[in-house]
Write a structure and sequence with these properties.
With 577 residues, the protein is mainly α. The chain has a domain of 383 residues: Orthogonal Bundle (Hydantoin permease). It contains 22 helices and two strands. The longest helix has 51 residues.
Amino acid sequence: MDLKTLTYIAVFGSFGVYFAIAWWARAGTTSEFYAAGGGVGPLANGMAIGADWMSAASFISMAGLIAFLGYGGSVFLMGWTGGYVLLAMCLAPYLRKHGKFTVPEFIGDRYYSKAARIVAVGCLIIASLTYVIGQMKGVGVAFSRFLEVDYGLGLGIGMGVVWVYAVLGGMKGITYTQIAQYVVLIFAYTVPAVFISLHLTGNPIPQLGLGSTMADGSGIYLLDKLDLVVTDLGFKEYTTDKLGSGINMFAYTLSLMVGTAGLPHVIMRFFTVPSVKAARASAGYALVFIALLYTVAPAVGAMARLNLMSTIEPSPGQYLVYEERPQWFKDWENTGLLKFEDKNGDGKIQYTADKEKNEMVKIDRDIMVLANPAIANLPNWVIALVAAGGLAAALSTAAGLLLAISSSISHDLMKGVLTPNLSEKNELLSSRIIMTIAILVAGYLGLNPPGFAAGTVALAFGLAASSIFPALMMGIFSKKISGTAAVAGMCAGIGITMLYVFQHKGIMFIPGTAFLGDMEPNWFLGISPNAFGIVGAIINFSVAFLVCKITGPAPAEIQQLVENFRTPKGAGAAHSH
């Protein structure tokens, strides 16, 4: 069967499953729409968290970044995984014990302030919209290549799919859909990796294949071979290349870590389980499900880079003739994400670190995982499976983000502040209308991404790190922080981060487009805008504690409230809203 037919079967077959699940699990109440009625089991919730977590950034972009950044790409693995552990240990159980639907609602209660709730809504929308742009790009990239349609049309189809199961099912529908999406994406990620590892090293386990010798009998280790190939072309060693300076690597990792712990769409998942104990258990299960993909990613990235280099330069100094380029090369050229320019007129594809001589003028990092099976000459059914997996990853996270945006507006802004007498039926209707508008806005931004957010989701983590994470940490672990202090901290943190990003928007590191050597001397301590979230977080904490010193601590009843959800007593079933 040809690739196009197999791809249509894999992609639209999986969509059919998502639609069926959404119809079966459609939400009938606000409790089901926001938190799946609090009745999701820990194993199921752990799998849903895994899908929500492993966005297009994890499935499509991360291995592509590792493929080109080498050692520097480890910041994404360390930051995102470390952030999840931080969230699971320090935030999720306490937020679940408090027993409310949303992050802004917790912040509003803890800081006894509608202003704090409104500011939290603003921060959440800014971070979530920035993040959802990356998911929409992933949807467009996958559709445009595998369904052979225009990028815009592909994006439109993806928006329609998300609309059906997210608007209809709410958190209940999204939860069970994400379980199916996790199964699709983990098979789609690991099956090609097993094939490629077996072919290159003779070891079917990719994690072990990464540290194995080549299967060609040369006795050379895979990473040593990759180092030789890339340095021969003038690139830095794959195993030592850093993402800028050491301090930038450190700041980038921390920014991703604390930003991850502050992402509202993942935190919301812990409100869907019946108890604090179940929240802790689902956090453990989720870590296992996440590790299944994250431990494979370095192998996928390294092997993809080696396959690409070996195709374009089959032997040292002998480049591929452009007219003899393989079919996968032509397919990706048609999408505009891969571009060759014959600068010396010899008809060969010269790929080198020298910008003046490099004829591969565009290799979008986001194509590496999707193109890898075709580069490695894997069967068509594997390529079709990868297409379905990439779309599952992007759609699952997009749905979670859009729900976070819609619930923050309908539940926190409208019901919580502007129209407190809103009936449950009208709140549910408004949630669905707002989510529809959010999908349209996200689609527009995916089609016309603003320059400061193009090609990366790291910025979204920086925005969450500088605003939401400190407010949650202080709210749980500092009884005395007042509402005024929290508002001042959130505004200062996100304000300074956005100011820094916009000031440097033309020269920030954008994965897939910018060269790593373009480091600007006027960066603060050599920290790139994508890594600045940790500085914003430090400013947030500092301003909040300073204002608290000046204005005084929180009232005694609020300090008692914090004491109540901090203590283990009564940590069984938590109250639903």
